[in-house]
Every structure is written in structure tokens, then in C-alpha cells.
Design a protein that fits this description.
The chain is mainly alpha-helical and 193 residues long. It is 69% helix and 0% strand. It is built from six helices and no strands. The structure holds fe (ii) ion (FE2) (2 copies).
Length: 193
């Protein structure tokens, strides 16, 4: 062995593998949460549960809008609402999954859901109001998820990546609603003439 190179030399950010192995065996009951977890777990779980409530409220609102729009023969808009409802459900599932990975419990209780949620449940009527309310809710999600992502920073890269992917999807949703608002708005104006 070359004596000039110490055998225990550590790189600038690589911890000794033996140390990582030792720590991984400690507190094995906490699963994916290791001693190296940098986040404030309690706050991260609270914030993720708020995002979960936000998604669940969005599912309910889009479902209501889907069935109401179907009733007023706006099939294309109804389909768009349904697609969003399903995507919000997908987000809710991802967030719930991550909460359990972090050794927390996803809160699906209807009690207090609206208080935990950042977005609102507004029924809206006629169609244009539904779309407007959905656009508002998406804008709320975009802003609050951006804040969650900034909060997570480098402390929990997995939750951060998940929220970034969800955020990108919410931005698409907002854009879809903006386009619908313009199209339906124009159609209604033409009908009035
Ligand atoms: Fe969502
Ligand atoms: Fe959305």
C-alpha cells in the first residue's frame, strides 16, 4: 500500500461506508427514515398531510363539476374535469405513499379536511364559474406547492422531487382551465349576440 494515501481517506462528502452500514442497522423500525434524514420530520409530515388534503378536496370538487357539467350537456368539459379528478387522485396516492415511507400516517379523515387543505371546495354554477373556481384552486396549489418545495430544500430530496413533479402537473391543470375559460367564455358571448 502506498503510505502516502491513508486507507481511511474520506472524500469531501462521502461518509465512511462502515459508518453508513452501522447507522442503517440502528432504528431499523423507522424504515426509509435514517439518522441522516435532514428534514424536521414532524413538520414535513404535517406539510405533506396538508398537500394530501388539498389533493382530496380537488378530487371531490372536480368530481362534482364532472357530474354537473355532464348534466348540462358539456361533454368535452365534463371529460376534462374527470381527467383532472383522476390525476388529483394519483397525486393523493403518491403523497400518502410517501407519508408512510416517512413512518407517518396519511390523514384521510373528512373531519377538518377543508381546514388542512390549501384549496377550497366551491361548487360553482354555471359552467364558467366551475372552471373559474378550478383555475383558482390550481393557482392556490401551484403557489403552496412551490412553497413546500422551497421548504423541503435539500433536506428531503425524495419528497421534494415528488412535489416538483406534482407541481408541474398542477401548472398544466391551471393552463387547461385558463384555455377552457377563454373558449367557453367566447362561446357564451357569441350565443348572447
Ligand atoms: Fe393535484
Ligand atoms: Fe390540479
Amino acid at each position: 500500500m502506498n503510505p502516502a494515501i491513508p486507507s481511511q481517506k474520506k472524500g469531501p462528502f462521502l461518509t465512511d461506508i462502515e459508518e453508513i452500514r452501522r447507522r442503517a442497522r440502528e432504528h431499523i423500525e423507522t424504515g426509509a427514515v435514517t439518522l441522516d434524514y435532514k428534514g424536521d420530520l414532524k413538520t414535513v409530515l404535517r406539510v405533506l398531510n396538508e398537500a394530501l388534503a388539498t389533493e382530496l378536496v380537488c378530487v371531490l370538487r372536480y368530481k362534482r363539476h364532472h357530474y354537473m357539467a355532464k348534466g348540462i350537456h358539456s361533454q368535452a368539459v365534463a371529460e376534462e374535469f374527470l381527467q383532472h379528478a383522476n390525476e388529483e387522485q394519483g397525486h393523493a396516492d403518491q403523497i400518502a405513499e410517501r407519508i408512510t415511507q416517512l413512518d407517518g400516517a396519511p390523514n384521510f379523515s373528512p373531519q377538518g379536511m377543508l381546514t388542512r387543505s390549501h384549496s377550497e371546495y366551491v361548487e360553482g354554477e354555471p359552467l364558467l364559474d366551475m372552471i373559474r373556481e378550478d383555475l383558482v384552486a390550481e393557482r392556490v396549489a401551484v403557489e403552496s406547492y412551490s412553497e413546500i418545495i422551497r421548504y423541503l430544500g435539500d433536506n428531503d430530496p425524495t419528497s421534494k422531487r415528488m412535489m416538483e413533479a406534482i407541481l408541474a402537473n398542477e401548472e398544466e391543470h391551471a393552463d387547461d382551465m385558463k384555455t377552457l375559460l377563454e373558449t367557453i367564455g367566447q362561446e357564451e358571448k357569441q350565443r348572447e349576440r
